[in-house]
Amino acid sequence: MDRAASPEALTQEILIRLGDRYASMFVRIWQPAGTPRGSVFCLHGFTGNGADFDYLAAFLCRNGYLVVCPDLLGRGRSAYLGGGYDTNLYSRCLHALGQFAGKENHFIGTSWGGLILTLFLYANRSRVDRIVLNDVPLIGGPKVDALRDAVIQESKLTFQTSAAARDHLRAANSRMGQVEQGTFDSFIENRIASTPGGFRLAYDPATTGNFEAMTGREYDLFPMMAKLDARILLMYGREGELIEESALERTRRARPDLCVVQTTDAGNPPSLMTPDQAFLVLGFLSAV
After folding, report:
1. Each residue of 64-90: pLDDT tens digit?
2. How is domain 3-139+219-286 classified at the architecture level of CATH?
3. Distance between alpha carbon 207 and the CA centroid of its chain, in Å?
C-alpha cells in the first residue's frame, strides 16, 4: 500500500450520555472521495483503540468505503471513567455511531471488540450487511481466563520513559506477523499514553474491574452469532488459540453460508495490517 497516497482520517468527538453526565468518545472517520459505497465500523480489542485500524481503514477508504473507527470509552483518546465499564456502556457507544450509517453497513470486530459487537447486534436485532469477526473469543474457558489475567497484570504497568513502553509493546505484540515497520511503529505509538509520572498503556486500568468475577465463567456465543442477519466471516491466524473446531462445525450446519478463513501468515491474532489481509476483507465486503 502506498502510504504517501493514503487518505487522512478526520476526527470527531461524540458525547455519550451516562445518566446525568456526558463522556467524550473520540472517533476517526475515513471519508472517501465521492459517494461512499457503504459504511464500515471497526471495533478494536480490549487494550486497543481505533488507530489499530489505520492501515485497513485507509485501504478501504481508497476503495470507496466510509470507515468509522472509535476509541471506545476508556481507551485511546476517549474519556477515562474510572469505573462503570459494562456491556450497557459499550452499547451506548455503538448506538452513538448510528449517525454514520449508510446504504450498506458492515462491521469489523477484533477480539473483545468482536465479542461486544456480537452481543450488541444480537440484542438490538440491528440491520447489518456483513460482519468480520477477527480472532474473537466466542467460547469462554481457561484460554480466555488466561487472557484476562494477562490484561489485569498489564493494566497495572507504568513506565519511566516512552522508550520503555515501546519496548514492552513490541515484545507483547511480537506474534503479529510481517507488518511494515512504519505501520507497526504507528500502532505502537498510539497505544502509549503520557501521565504526570511517566507513561502507561493507553487504556483505563479500571476497564478490568469485573475481570476477576468473570474467571471460570463459561459462555458460548456461537448460537447467538449464527442468528445474526448478516453474512459473516470468521478470521483466525494459523496458530490461533481461540479456534473451536467442534463449535465451528456445529455452526456451519446451522449457517452453511458462514465463511471461515484461517490465514497462514497473518500473525496471531491477524493484524489486518498487510495487503493480503486488507484484500481479503475488501473482497468479502464487496462480493456480490
Report:
1. 999 999 999 999 999 999 999 999 999
2. 3-Layer(aba) Sandwich (3.40)
3. 15
